[in-house]
Fold this sequence. Notes:
The protein has two domains: 22-163 and 238-382, ABC transporter involved in vitamin B12 uptake, BtuC, CATH 1.10.3470; 164-237. The protein contains 16 helices and two strands. By secondary structure, the chain is mainly α. Strands 1-2 form a two-stranded antiparallel sheet.
Amino acid sequence: MNKTKVISFIKSNTMILMLILVTLFFVWQTGGKILFPQNISNLIAQNAYVFILATGMLLCILTGGNIDLAVGSIVCFVGAVGAKLMETYDVNWIIAVAFMLVMGIAIGAWQGFWIAYVRVPPFITTLAGMFIFRGLSNVVLQGLTVSLTDKAFIRTFGGGANCYIPDFLGGDGFNVTAMLAGILTCIIFLAVKIKGRIEKAKKGYEMESIVAMITRSAVISAVVLVFSYELALYRGIPTALVIVAIVVLAYAYITAKTTLGRHFYAVGGNEKAAKLSGIDTNRIYFFAYTNMGFLSALAGMMTIARMTSAQPTYGQNYEMDAISSCFIGGASAYGGTGKVSGVIIGAVFMGVINLGMSIMGVDANYQKVVKGGVLLAAVIFDVVSKKKNG
């Protein structure tokens, strides 16, 4: 019986265990450099766009394994328009941000209309969007780089040297605010887990063993505390992390606790059955791609803020990073299966691989080979699992 529980625990936590093993491998190969506080902070800054885009991409994938190939081009186009507004036309950054968000939503709605109501395949619609908005980015920027000078915009969206939350508790060389935030996060996480288990017990639902729950909770809490300690040793909490946390928590709640979230899983599981049960499947598709446009705009703002400029080449392969994070994090290639928490683990997994190989000085071409192999392995695992269960 114990052996069965161990096997079940390993299966349900495969990606967490793989993430730990990969991290330990790079700790060994880099002499511990990957865990330097500055590298941990860079991991967040460099992959913030992945977390944002992958969260939105999950909703597209849930509808039946569909993807959005245009997100990288939308990131570039929205960022280009925003940079031109702020720098060339001297538009206030708050107005520019509002315009960029509206523009992202409009682009997402435009693609969502063709996919949801005309039933043009998502692959074709978003492939067209990828070319269209990449081309428009070049038109807007005229092939040139536009540098950003608005410090308020740059700082708010995670760029520049001062893109960190101030230490309100006045730590000397150690950011007490960052450490306290980590402790509070663990307390809230444990309280939610305990409350959820009590509610399941009252309703008579099947639950994982108490040992498995304690083990998982202890590991996650330990990771959060170590992560917070590393940030506290550097400059504290990056503003990009705050934005990512808000997005992740909001969409985790939507997918897990709302009727809209359940509809996504229903459509992905069996669209015809979902339609017969009264779900407006067209609306679900439309929302998924409109939402993807909104999050692409947000990622665009974070990208130009981090780079303090806009270029026609920004956003290249962003869609691949987002898609990879979803599938590596457990989203099914067939749709109907996947969680935001899994997507975040997948994004961190990809970030650790990128950072570790960069520190080791691995050639960029070999990095692509490794990332492609990891993605293929994740999808093969999903397909084989589905066949076994079937």
